[in-house]
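Board notes (copied after class):
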Amino acid sequence: MRVLEGRATIEDVDAVVAELATIGDEHGCTVQAFDARYLVGREHLERAVELADRAIERGENVARDRGVEILLYAAGRRQIDDALTMGVEAGALDVAVLIDGVDDGGDAEDAGAGASDVELEARDSKIAAHEADAAAAVRESFALNERPTLGVEHADAALVRDFFDVSEAELAATDAELAEIVLERVALLDVEK
């Protein structure tokens, strides 16, 4: 999994989403853009990918598209329209673009029963190369001004609290940080199905 972080100016959201899908298709990767203000860190995206892939493997996914399923988990929501709030919008904004390669036989995390270490290493190298190529294509077409955008220090705390329904009372009642509470919300999506 790779994440490109930076500032982008988006004029046509539909065109950007279509271009990212094309790049993903061309390079055998899922490419999904997020409004970085909603993301509390890389772990947020890692957890969303892990849970989305597990839902897909079990046939419990809501979305047909892996990128949209990842978006649903990142948002901690089952409604696609609600989750799209975390996607990109028109204008200048901080973004995080997730690039996650998939093996020809399925998910990148699927080790493949009975595969040797050499076979797994070759597969991982192939996936990493696809992700690198996709990242280069995203950089070229997205005109991304790269800079850090992930993490609580870059997120909009008030926006995150509102989106994930984290009250001041909840924060006061726990030793957990905002990022930990958001990751819990992401994980609880499976329980709430």
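Comment from the instructor: Confidence is low (pLDDT under 50) at residues 106-111. The beta strands are 2-10, 29-35, 91-103, 106-107, 145-146.
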